[in-house]
Amino acid sequence: MIDTRLLTFLTLLEEKNYTKTANRLYITQPAVTHHIKSLEKDLNITLFKDNKSFDLTNSGILLKEYALAAKSQYSQFQNAISKQDTHTKINLAFTPFSIKCMINQHIKDVLYSNRIKINTYVKDYKDIIEMLTMGSLDFAIIDEPFDSSIFESFALSTTDIILVCNPNGQYSKKNRVTREEFSKSVLVLGDENSGLYKDSIQAFSNKNIKINNNSIIYSNDIDCMKEIILSFDGIGIVYQDAFLKELEAGSLKKIEMLNFKATQNIYIIYNRNAFLDDDVRKLIDLIYRKYSVIQND
To answer: How far apart are CA 141 and CA 92, in angstroms?
Structure first.
């Protein structure tokens, strides 16, 4: 079991207040102080430069890294034991846009073909990283950069970032919009915490495309984005693989813009130190053999 003093230390770093830390942990404030002083005495170190800013000493930084790793490992162990008791085999999460891309790539046929019990979640990237770190997820499928020193990974697919519009709207007779037309359009982007948004902004920056004067509507829901594009007669910046059915059915139209071309990889990631059982590893290997396009170090 992880030393409770380490949990107190990590909580204090988050709260930066002894009283709030005590309330959160359901202990007294003197107990919080005792835990911190006890760590410093036993380890013969000083944790904080001062007790107001809670800035860490070099020793404090090292202890924080160890405490986070210990908390993560213990949480992963608890999750592994829990799965034995509940017979839950796999916990998997997608980011909102990656799930639509991969469903259109028929990944569900692989996930649910072996009669393995799977809990599937759709979560924001930040939540997924935390859940993977703490062991409440076995693996995830995402569309954002990640720390390769912590997570094993491989790319499942590469999708184009494209512009789409209302097939019956103001751009219906155009196959390409000018930058001037684009600068006056209502833009529909992924929400600001999504990989789609970050990828789109980076692609605009690479091509020196300014969107400062545009009206912009954000969403992390595919169906909502489609309705906004149609209702506002705007231009959506989307992953092509996420909108294949709409493009094929003609409910949305793809348009070009001079010199604009961007792609994004969809990744599978899992914690390097995770307690993955054989069924999880076999499924990851099956997905790798079917979908892998790029291997990461």
So the answer is: 8
